Amino acid sequence: MSAQANWPDLLRQISKEILTDADFLEGNLAETLTPAHRQAGWLGEPGATEVELAALEQRLATQLPPSYRTFLQTSNGFGPLDYFIWDLQPCQKVDWLVNTNRDVVELWEKGSKQTPSVSDEEYFQYGEEQAGEQVRGEYFRELLMISDWGDAGFLALNPAVQHEGEWEAWHFASWIPGANRYRSFTELMQATLVGYQALKAE
Hints:
The protein has 202 residues and is an alpha+beta fold. The chain is built from nine helices and five strands. Strand 2 and strand 3 form a beta hairpin.
């Protein structure tokens, strides 16, 4: 999985997959598609301007990781992404998890005080060797929520763990013991497409 992505190509591929999926066209997920999506054959929005990106970084008091910033430049909001995440938020709605879902943060912080933290050896396992429960509750306060809740879960970026300048990316859901974690936002998006294609083919 690459830390960089050709965002126009990747997002067009996701759009094509979703817009040929009966579950989204006429099934129980049809309401996640807008008439504009169907007409354009594209699930994205116009890219964020430098003014919008600078305003977001000023509001968050941080510099966005490269792959996520480039994604926003390509499409300022996108979705549905798969059966579980329906909207990646535009700049104007992106915010720290502690501001949007403080109860989730406090719940995991409380749990982290009662159990020992995951060791580095366990934590820095990615891909198929990773166990979903291997998250650190102390990181929740630092998470940047970048999607809606979708199917009882959301996507977030974790600046507390970085790989070559990229922030760790999380798919958190109530039906995952903790979270599925990736080394970058690009890696998360690539893996999400592969996982979605596998489920779609079943």
